Amino acid sequence: MLVDNSEIEAALERIKHYIHQTPILTSQTFEHTFCPGKNIFFKCDNFQKCGSFKIRGALNAVMKLKEREPDVEAVVTHSSGNFAQALAYAAKLTGVSCYVVCPSNTVQAKKDAAKEYGAHVTECEPTEAAREEGANAIIQSTGAVFVHPYAHPDIICGQGTAGLEMISQVRQQLENGDIGTQIDAVLVPVGGGGLLSGISTAIKYKYPNAKVFAVEPETANDAKRSFDTRTLTPNENYPTTICDGLRTSMSEITFNHMMANVDNVMLVSDEETAKATRFLLSRMKMCVEPSGAVGVAALMNDNNVNKYLKGLKNIVVFISGGNFDFLTQSDLINQYL
Amino acid sequence: MLVDNSEIEAALERIKHYIHQTPILTSQTFEHTFCPGKNIFFKCDNFQKCGSFKIRGALNAVMKLKEREPDVEAVVTHSSGNFAQALAYAAKLTGVSCYVVCPSNTVQAKKDAAKEYGAHVTECEPTEAAREEGANAIIQSTGAVFVHPYAHPDIICGQGTAGLEMISQVRQQLENGDIGTQIDAVLVPVGGGGLLSGISTAIKYKYPNAKVFAVEPETANDAKRSFDTRTLTPNENYPTTICDGLRTSMSEITFNHMMANVDNVMLVSDEETAKATRFLLSRMKMCVEPSGAVGVAALMNDNNVNKYLKGLKNIVVFISGGNFDFLTQSDLINQYL
């Protein structure tokens, strides 16, 4: 079952007054250096509320839940961080309680932010099984309704609103600047795949010939293996990467969207991601977390540009989050520079 | 002699295809925490080309120079960094050579950026006299035309284009969101005063009742002393502050604009500026240099909000630059946290 573009449009109507329409930025230096002859549009959801796109899906899911069950008292999820904050914020906004189960290797700042928005945070072992177990225990004891961080149509439709925004924002820029007629390609980070599912649906609906590429760390390459074998193939262990938000694996529903809408999967090394993060900070003045920078990292590699983007002019790269503390975590980046 | 709003409009026509219209961002967390009941609009020229507003004035000045003297071969300036980069970029774009004299305490990254854009960089003692001497020597030996970093109508009009952008961007947001009818106050960092002169002219032309506040470090308080005594009173020595871009003093022309258009001057400590820089990085995901964050620092102080902004609803704070390297310079911020 794939989501429909009309459901994404309905999600945008539902949530648009509670989220930011995040800006699209450009950099001539980036274009000249890494993608000569192309227009690169950076869609910056690091400037989104709670610092990532996750609020889009969380709000859509919780607002729909409140429509269906006005008496709902609490929600619960498991998350490596960004969805935890987002669900906590969405729950607060709609007046329900929020429980989150975080793997023990979750970045402290992300846990703190969820608590700040009023969530009850508990920790678990960093495995998919332990995350689900922890959430189930809370459902049993509190009656909270489970909200999955990515494997649900409401989440996918919420995340897809970023795709609708890109389409209208890039069209405005193209009309003003007369540099082309449409979006030719989009690069989207993939962890669990909710964002990829939503954005790819919106883009392919509007521009059926546009290419959609997923990007993930080479050590957390379940999307690539699943895509190549046409079989859902999760990561066996919790992979090691500086992209803490992309360690999770795709689910059946997001895998199905990928197979329907996505043209290929690009892999990036942590070194490439660190360099992209640094470029975004020093040249584009943006704080982007490593997970949020993988699409930019892919564009900084000639091999990807030559292999996948030949002849394509207008490229949107999605920057998914900015929850990274350069004042205390810079070693994570500097080790590669 | 004060510049006229029509000259600022002409400047915007001249340069608009070569600069970014930088975004306006907002933060509910900031509003709730520091300015309850107000709408705070962050005009983000840290995302401008070359990382600061300086390109606006530099481009206007060099393009006008080329109109008047099509055969001009070189330009020269003295600058603590951001104007150096900007003039280098503007010169490259218009096909003239560029020389810059930087005080010896200029941030290395800013000098490097000017060189990267093709400028010939020489160093001098960190005093106003030495800067002017250095520039004069280059004029003598090369015939380059001097472009002052702030004390010239063309520069003032170029910087004022940021004011015109704010007016149209905030009006769009106000019309969409129905949260008021106009800009009620603007906060602008002041070093040499070119930006303050230009923005204040544009704002007062459109909204004569709006308040315009200059903001500067308490250790580089020539604007405050000049404003209070109604007499141009430069800083005696090159002041010590983490705001390296605001150590310079106002000139007669920018002082005259301040006395005509500005309602008061707010002072901030380096500690307050460091905290503002940290908030902008960690919560708003923006890289802002200390000089660029002083307006935000002023808004984070209750005393300023109560004394100067009582009853004012729609406040624009100008973020002037982002040329700061959090991966290597974070100690400068962390010492205060």
Question: How would you characterize this protein structure?
Answer:
The structure is a homodimer of 337-residue chains. With 337 residues, chain A is α/β, with parallel strands linked by helices. In chain A, 47% of the residues lie in helices and 15% in strands. The first copy, chain A, has 14 helices and 10 strands. Chain A has helices at residues 5-15, 28-34, 54-68, 82-94, 108-116, 128-142, 153-177, 194-206, 222-229, 252-261, 270-282, 294-299, 302-308, 330-334, and strands spanning 24-25, 39-44, 74-78, 97-103, 120-124, 145-146, 185-189, 211-217, 264-268, 314-319. In chain A, the strands form 2 sheets. A 6-stranded mixed beta sheet of chain A has the order 1-2-10-7-8-9. Chain A has a 4-stranded parallel beta sheet with strand order 5-4-3-6, with helices on both faces. The radius of gyration of chain A is 19 Å and the shape is globular. The A-B interface holds A 20, 23, 25-26, 28, 46-47, 49, 51, 109, 278, 281-288, 322, 325-327, 330, 333-334, 337 and B 20, 23, 25-26, 28, 46-47, 49, 51, 109, 278, 281-288, 322, 325-327, 330, 333-334, 337.
Distinctive features:
14 helices, 6-stranded mixed beta sheet, 337 residues, 4-stranded parallel beta sheet, homodimer
Give me the side-by-side strand order of the main sheet of chain A. Answer: 1-2-10-7-8-9
Number of helices of chain A: 14
Shape of chain A: globular
Mean pLDDT across all residues of chain A, rounded? Answer: 94
The tally of beta strands of chain A, per DSSP, is 10
Quaternary state of the chains: homodimer
The residue fraction in helices of chain A comes out at 40-55%
Ranges of chain A where pLDDT stays below 50 over 5 or more residues in a row are none
